[in-house]
Amino acid sequence: xxxxxxxxxxxxxxxxxxxxxxxxxxxxxxxxxxxxxxxxxxxxxxxxxxxxxxxxxxxxxxxxxxxxxxxxxxxxxxxxxxxxxxxxxxxxxxxxx
Length: 97
What we know:
There is one protein chain. By secondary structure, the chain is mainly alpha-helical. It has one domain. Helices cover 69% and strands 0% of the residues. The protein is built from four helices and no strands. The protein has helices spanning 5-33, 35-41, 45-57, 63-80. Helix 1 runs antiparallel to helix 2 (35-41). The longest helix is centred in the first third of the chain and has 29 residues, at 5-33. 0% of the residues are buried. The model has no long low-confidence stretch (mean pLDDT 82).
């Protein structure tokens, strides 16, 4: 099979922009925001897939997709909140004889 020039351009574009730029941004986020936050970014892939499908492929967005979107974004929100530090408890030590 002979590869057409437009297919080669599409493959190159996917390789450079789809993978290369994402790779650079991923490691930039690890450096700036930490590994925990960066790992949560992967949960946003379904969200962007829904939006791109709607914008580029005229896919319909139904209530179940919106419900899933809310669940995903809620999980990312709750997982990304800073931890509350436990208040030190004053424990009275009694002397035992």
